[in-house]
Specification:
By secondary structure, this protein is mainly alpha-helical. It is built from three helices and two strands.
Length: 90
């Protein structure tokens, strides 16, 4: 049987991917949910991290698994920016 940490990480990743696909249709709520799930992924992804891509210190670096969280944060930021620009009167 799988470790609880692996199951939680898998569920957060599934939610992250689904939210990334649907957040464009759900406005600021979807973008906020995407940002929250991206941060949650960065906190729980240790069972699925993968190889270290960039080393900052001997104990800290960016792993392959971290990229999903960073991509989610970038997408949420871009969608917030689009929403903000569309609301600003010209």
């Amino acid at each position: 049987m799988r470790d609880d940490g692996e199951v939680i990480a898998a569920l957060v990743l599934v939610a992250l991917v689904l939210t990334a696909g649907l957040s464009g249709r759900s406005g600021p709520v979807g973008s906020g949910a995407l940002a929250v799930l991206s941060v949650a992924w960065l906190l729980v992804n240790s069972p699925m991290e993968g190889p270290v891509l960039v080393v900052f210190t001997p104990d800290h670096g960016i792993t392959g698994g971290d990229l999903a969280g960073f991509a989610g944060l970038a997408l949420a930021s871009a969608r917030f920016a689009v929403l903000r620009r569309s609301r600003v009167p010209r």
